[in-house]
Specification:
This protein folds into two domains: 30-57 and 96-206, Rossmann fold (3-Layer(aba) Sandwich); 62-94 and 215-397, Rossmann fold. It contains 16 helices and 14 strands. It has helices at residues 3-8, 27-43, 47-61, 71-77, 97-110, 123-135, 145-150, 152-160, 175-188, 206-229, 244-250, 278-281, 319-327, 337-351, 357-373, 390-397; strands at 16-17, 20-21, 67-69, 81-86, 114-119, 138-144, 164-168, 193-195, 235-239, 259-267, 283-287, 290-294, 330-336, 377-382.
Length: 401
Amino acid sequence: MSDQTKNETVPSDAGYFGQWGGQFLPPQLEGPFAEIWDAYRQIENDASFIAELRYIRKHFQGRPTPVYHARSLSLANGGAQIYLKREDLNHTGAHKLNHCMGEGLLAKYMGKKKVIAETGAGQHGVALATAAAYFGLECEIHMGEVDIAKQAPNVSRMQLLGAKVVPVSHGLKTLKEAVDSAFEAYLADYENSIYCIGSVVGPHPFPLMVRDFQHVVGVESREQFQDMTGNLPDVVTACVGGGSNAIGIFRAFLDDPCDLVGVEPLGRGLATGDHAATMSYGTEGIIHGFKCYLLQEADGSPSPVYSCASGLDYPGVGPEHCYLKDTGRVQYVTASDDDCKDAFFKLSRQEGIIPAIESAHAVAHALKLAREMERGTILVNLSGRGDKDLDYVIENWGIGE
């Protein structure tokens, strides 16, 4: 890898990864975001902050999560050996708590009383509600009405944890609209609250902050895989919506001779237009205060997007992913709803692990890639568990054959 690639995976002072990212904000939010950036720079290398976060990760979150050899799935697939980074075993059932506990700790450091966020699949909302309960903060979660219907168990969990869930009824009533709504709420109360973005998206410094908090996934994975096998994986893969779980694991392998593959949702297929494959079919645009590859209309407005996975149906993507695509360090591919469904049932039946529908996209590509490779190793970031998806799966997919 070139020195340029190494350097530009650390954003500029203005928050750019190459040409991607930045900060496009209404004037009244420039000050609050500068406050967040100043606070993060003060604590990011502070020994007491790091020590408290490490204590939380070990004693509250249950980290490190294990790497698991999916032997039965690998044998049934007849190809390369598949390993899973079990983020589904992280407290609350997904990788999202990694950055939510960091953001909650930052909020306490800044003296804020309330956290505000959006959620799609509900995992970020549950994680932030958990963090708010832990730190004694108010919590307000904005969620599209379509996703509320699909993810009823997570809505109940957020409410049980004390969060206020705000239904979003405009537009497509999914993740993009939830982000719009959460930004408006933050704009109205930024003095007392902090907006906790749920992925490596949004205005600077959130792509950097969330990436840093998620980097623990990659650090653990790299050490665990080498301990298990004596080698590095041939391929590391993860699903990509906004891209937090993927960037978390990819970061640790950027300088290694491993292929890195992000898997986007192709939905019902390119011909139908019902997909959210931003890196594959998007063009340069601006959404929610940052520049990225974007699925957009002729007038620059975000296009309607779709995925069976509520956490992946976002028309933009993290700016660091955009940069890694441009440099060629990470390859971005797609998996359809049908591919995801097949992987969901195979992992459930052959390993006793029910994955989140989001994570099943990465498993689907791993199955395809393993057959093509025939030998070698593939490490999948299993970013979440599928408890939240059971109602949707049974209603739309049945219980499998």
